[in-house]
Task: structure prediction
Amino acid sequence: MISLGRLHGWLRSARTWLAFGILAPIGMVALSGVMLADLRQDAWDRAEQTSRNLVQVLERDIARNIEIYDLSLRAAVENLAAPGLAEAGPRLRQLILFDRAATARDMGVMLVIDEHGQILDDIGAVPPRQGNYADRAYFKVHEDHDGLGLYVGRPIVSRLTGEPMLPFSRRINKPDGRFGGVVLGSVKLSYFTHLFSEIDLGPRGAINLYLTDGTRLMRYPYEAADLGANIAKAATFKRFMRERQGRFVSTSVRDGIERAYTFTRIGALPLILNVALATQDVEADWLAKAVVIGGIVLVLCGLTIALSFLFGRELRRREAAQDALAALSRTDPLTGLPNRRCFEDRFARAAEAARHGGQPLSLLIVDADHFKRYNDRYGHPVGDEILKGLARSLAASVHRPQDLVSRIGGEEFAILLPDTDAAGAGRIADRVHAEVAALAVGSAGIGAGAVTVSIGLACMGPDGGRGAAPPDLYRLADGALYEAKHGGRNQTRMAAAQAAAAPSQRGPLQLVKTS
Result:
């Protein structure tokens, strides 16, 4: 046991205080090093999550628009075989061939080109503008290969408008199977510029869109010299091709900047999208904090406890902010309804529970009719009020805690109904129509009954032999919604695959119209 005298002498020793003077800063530096490493990892985690979310949002937007372009091309190919088309007048022929193309955002030119490369039909002019496209790569590809389906070509400059565009094309076959020409559609490259420019990636960040052959279709920040460049031999692109999606850190062959790449293939299309954050930008805020904290630690070691309290408070604030962001990430900010991410999670769990428990599961996809007209006529503020009103109407149509009403994008909503068969789902659909029929926007002079919705209904049966399987339920409901739209809107359509599974007394649910 140490005597008081020896303890007193030890405390008075210069060596003791020197040791304290050395060990205390070393301990503070070590502790600060651990904390700064954690802050650095936190910065990278946030950057990774942000990049992943951005890639998902951009991929869905691009895939959905290309799907619309492809639907327009398919429709034109199909309509070329419509009876009486050859006898139709030029304007009627144009309307028949390009009736679906009006919904495509940022659509450039759309043409029907014959087997010799001459323009037969033009969405932009009657009579069609003149030109020969037999020398275009997309024309030659379809001429030489049958069965390609949708072909995405390299960027071109339109000979009709002079604008840079990305071409999409489908082959036209004659009745005997021989090459009959090409239906060409194109999207303006300005669509990608506008889409990417809304995102802040820092001063050195970039977004790139490539073809799978290595051709760069678009880069943000935009530089004309980047378009059409091929990086197929670059190590980064080889990594893109080996893995369908992922994340890695590498140095850009373009400018030598080290970036963290988050990438994905866009559906089944030959397109690769990546979001690249410069490592300097990711660590910029962290580095500034490191310099400040390190300086304070080295100069003011006596303030260790106060700094620790401040650091703990910042951590608590960060955790609270992250919790708030997590809640916001599952909520649609306009309507206050659960968003698509929340819907997908609940849908997966509900489908699994229904499959194991032998209970039915129904899904309604609800879409506002002619919503674009309201936006165009009254403006987006009124459009937002309509969406809010629809959200309230849909929420008022269900009452069980397990039922979920969510906004899954644009003017499209989903109602998930666990333990509900087709007949019950039909009643909910009727209730939705009734609630929406009472919706009015007085500030814009939109009275009750002006706003209508179309509904697609699908049900997973209580056993494996009836109804839809969980992976098909959304697809069937979406297909039924399309049928409701195609059939005149303001109605409910049940997925055709489930007509036999519904009770006989609910037979009329296959087509429900409301006035």
DSSP finds 13 helices and 17 strands in the chain. The chain has a mean pLDDT of 82.
